[in-house]
Specification:
Radius of gyration: 15 Å
Helix content: 10-25%
Largest sheet: 4 strands, antiparallel
Structural class: alpha+beta
Bound molecules: zinc ion
Number of helices: 1
């Protein structure tokens, strides 16, 4: 049986081979690198079955951030929050 996937127009997920339940990914902001090593933080958009369109925050290797880097991540979060509000009905 094939699953009919109805994506919002902003979806960037390649759903080939996915089984239900289907979640969608939207745009993501540029990755912010931490001060040392390979640490990073990233903000994007995805869907959550219970909550609809949500802001996605990911980070790895415990990024330490300078004030400038911290503001950059914060700005991305603010922009992502506005994006969700603008697109929640898509
Ligand atoms: Zn999709």
């Amino acid at each position: 049986m094939s699953v009919i996937v109805t994506c919002p127009n902003w979806c960037t997920t390649n759903h080939l081979g996915d089984d239900e339940p289907i979640e969608h990914d939207g745009p993501s902001w540029p990755t912010v690198e931490g001060v040392s090593g390979k640490s990073w933080a990233n903000v994007g958009i995805c869907t959550d079955r219970a909550h609809g369109v949500v802001v996605w925050l990911d980070a790895d290797y415990g990024p330490n951030l300078t004030p400038r880097q911290a503001r950059e991540v914060g700005l991305h979060l603010l922009e992502a929050a506005a994006w969700v509000e603008d697109h929640s009905e898509d």
